[in-house]
Amino acid sequence: MKKIQMVDLKSQYDFIEKEVTENMSQVFETSAFINGPMVQAFQADMEAYLNVKHVIPCANGTDALQIALMGLKLVPGDEVITSDFTFAATVEVISLLKLKPVLVDVDPQTFNIDPLAIEKAITPKTKAIIPVHLFGQSAAMDSILEIANKHNLYVVEDNAQGIGATHTFSDGKKAKTGTLGHVSATSFFPSKNLGAYGDGGAIFTNDDALAHFIRGIVNHGMYQRYYHDVVGVNSRLDALQAAVLKVKLQYLDFYNERRKEAANRYDQYFKNHANLIIPHRAADCDSHVFHQYTLRVLNSDRDALVVHLNKNNIPCGVYYPVPLHAQKAYADDQVDSRNFPITNQLVKEVISLPMHSELTHDQIDYIATTLLQFFN
């Protein structure tokens, strides 16, 4: 059995090495390393895949989220509602722009932002909602979009973990996550379902005017060279990363299906176990692309389980051990920890197992049987 890794990028690369090398060679031949033909080709491919009008590549996922917010022309003090249970980048960019993050609790099944909590948190200063498609599962976008329309709020999707997931609306209509709100951001960090071989990110929108504004922001505020029409940043996708992503995008649906197969195999071991809750997903599973396979550990010592797995050469992760409201950087004396009962419970229970498209059956079997031994 191969060594078990949280993400096996080397095995994935072995399968696509020839295509990646050919694309990178094209970049070297043209020597167009910034905003060249390879970036444009990847952008067009991504627009076609998502069925979205505009993809604006940028340097990383955090930049993508910050630039998406900058595109909305919010002003300091405007409130942005988002999830308390997510990676810090989501709230980081809100704070950097001197907006006010308003954290709310999550749904105990999906770990995604709770629409009822959103509704309760809205004030006259609220201007936007950032739902996070956490661990690869679509947030409750029907309800979120309804709330946003009712209160005239922007919806900025944090799709850093959900690329390729499909949301099915109550009327049966389907659309990819990242195309549902006013604007969205994603990350191409190497471990993502669609990962580069370095940093990368992108912003998606169907709004022509917003796309035009954002294209200026990512390039120092320029639409014409040396003419700076808006305050911008320097955040562009490297052409060599686009060369990798253009290849991997062709395989994204395959990668995601492999992740779903791995998740289903894990489920067979863990379902109905008294101490474990398996990941929730919609019946057709299209809404979840399993960036992470995250269990809840009940009535037991989650941290001791981490030690047990590591002793048996099984990596695992705790995403996330501290709620955002309790992080030193974002602590607010006016925030009552009792308002986050679900998040406060999840941080004590969650554990994420190795999950990637190269997992083999014997690896999954070993991981699952070793984990279950902990409870015997």
List the helices and strands and how they pair.
Blueprint: H1 9-30, H2 37-50, E1 54-58, H3 61-71, E2 79-83, H4 89-96, E3 100-104, H5 115-121, E4 126-130, H6 141-151, E5 154-158, E6 166-168, E7 174-176, E8 183-187, E9 201-205, H7 208-217, E10 222-224, E11 227-228, H8 239-249, H9 252-270, E12 276-277, E13 293-297, H10 302-311, H11 341-349, E14 350-353, H12 361-373
Parallel strand pairs: 2-3, 2-4, 4-5, 5-8
Antiparallel strand pairs: 1-9, 6-7, 8-9, 10-11, 12-13, 13-14
Helix pairs in contact: 1-8, 2-8, 3-4, 3-7, 9-12
Structure, described:
A hairpin with a 5-residue loop joins strand 6 (166-168) and strand 7 (174-176). This protein is α/β, with parallel strands linked by helices and 376 residues long. The chain has a seven-stranded mixed β-sheet with strand order 1-9-8-5-4-2-3, sandwiched between helices. Strands 12-13-14 form a three-stranded antiparallel β-sheet. It contains twelve helices and 14 strands. It is globular and about 70 Å long.
